[in-house]
Amino acid sequence: MTLQAIRYKDGALSVLDQLKLPSKSTYVDIKSVNDGWNVIKTMKVRGAPAIALVGSLSVVVEIYEQEFEINQAFIDLVDKHLTYLTSARPTAVNMRKTASYLMEFLNNLSRDVASPQELKLNFISEVERLLKKDTDDNISVGNYGASHIMSNPSCTKLNGKASVLTHCNTGSLATTGYGTALGVIRSLFSQGNLDHAYCTETRPYNQGARLTAYELVYEKIPATLVADSMVSLLFKEKSVAAVVVGADRVAKNGDTANKIGTYQIAIAAKYHQIPFYIAAPFSSIDRNTESGDDIEIEIRPQEELANINGQRIAAEGICCWNPAFDVTPHQLITGGIITELGVFRADEIANYLEKSEKL
Ligand code: MRU
């Protein structure tokens, strides 16, 4: 049984408060769209796929007991809620893509469905389907990524096994289960092909030290934590076969926004000739974003950089710049983009968008 970030059943939703991990495992009830928006904004829930699913489920919770007179009233209300939820975190594209997918689903369905009650039940089932699809997709991402790494002779030259570095948290806590980049590590491990996993601390919010390290320990995967500033030396001294990280948004040209610090890891990987992979479902790949220049980077509060666990560590009075993400140019994504449909060259990812589901 893996860690469960999202608990949902028949209109009841709660999420694991990731701000309290690893010291406390506390679930927070989500009873409305406002509750959903707040847990996303404050990062009690984080990770692009988890944000989209908690957002969509918070709409389900809100409308679960409500009754509507006409289809359009239901559609307009869902539209209003989804639009609001997309405003919580601007860089991760999954919530925005899920919102437009669900609106298209409702608008198409309302032509065939007579009653708002029927429309509502179909909407709920569709969100529930997306919940399950996320875990299934992640398992495919994990397996494709593990095979690709193992098929590269330079990745496994030491003992036939691969060591992998990851950044931030992309595991069960960032998704509905299994994870994306952490899913690749999970697959390598379950196939007996993982030598060692390295995870970065991921300053300033420490998703690596608090969450990825927690998941790796929980799953008994051989792993070591390093500070972000140690990555180049790690590449020089230890035999790291591949870097695998997640994505908050992949642009059409393959440029990828992910947790701040990803870009510098990609540069160091290129210098050391270590394949650098993005692991992301198609729900993170955006046909409406031409390149990384078009991705809005979320700027988080200064306190998240100046404080750790509410304790100030930076000198009083210093000004902090706290971008939550950076963009890795596609030229640095040398291993490829690992998706639920296979592993593709970053600069060719747009060609595969049509083959994926609309989401
Ligand atoms: O700010 P966060 O913690 O939401 O950032 C998370 C990341 O950058 C992840 O790598 C990304 O969302 C992919 S999660 C499968």
Write up this protein:
There is one protein chain. With 359 residues, the chain is of the alpha/beta class. The chain folds into two domains: 6-134, translation initiation factor eif-2b, domain 1 (Four Helix Bundle (Hemerythrin (Met), subunit A), Up-down Bundle), CATH 1.20.120.420; 142-355, Translation initiation factor eif-2b, domain 2 (Rossmann fold, 3-Layer(aba) Sandwich). Helices cover 38% and strands 16% of the residues. A seven-stranded mixed β-sheet has the order 6-5-4-7-10-14-15. Strands 1-2-3 form a three-stranded antiparallel β-sheet, with helices on one face. A three-stranded antiparallel β-sheet has the order 8-9-13, covered by helices on one side. Strand 14 (336-339) and strand 15 (342-344) form a beta hairpin. Helix 1 (33-41) packs antiparallel against helix 2, helix 2 (48-63) runs antiparallel to helix 3 (71-86) and helix 2 (48-63) packs across helix 4. The two termini are 28 Å apart. The relative contact order is 0.12. The site of 5-S-methyl-1-O-phosphono-5-thio-D-ribulose has 17 residues, from helix 2 and strand 9.
Secondary structure layout plus pairing:
Blueprint lengths: L5 E4 L2 E5 L10 E4 L2 H9 L6 H16 L7 H16 L7 H17 L5 H35 L11 E5 L14 H10 L3 E7 L6 H12 L4 E4 L4 H7 L4 E4 L3 E2 L5 E4 L2 H10 L4 E4 L23 H4 E2 L2 E2 L12 E4 L7 E4 L2 E3 L15
Parallel strand pairs: 4-5, 4-7, 5-6, 7-10, 10-14
Antiparallel strand pairs: 1-2, 2-3, 8-9, 9-13, 11-12, 14-15
Helix pairs in contact: 1-2, 2-3, 2-4, 2-5, 3-4, 3-5, 4-5, 5-6
The structure holds 5-S-methyl-1-O-phosphono-5-thio-D-ribulose (MRU).
The site of 5-S-methyl-1-O-phosphono-5-thio-D-ribulose has 17 residues, from helix 2 and strand 9.
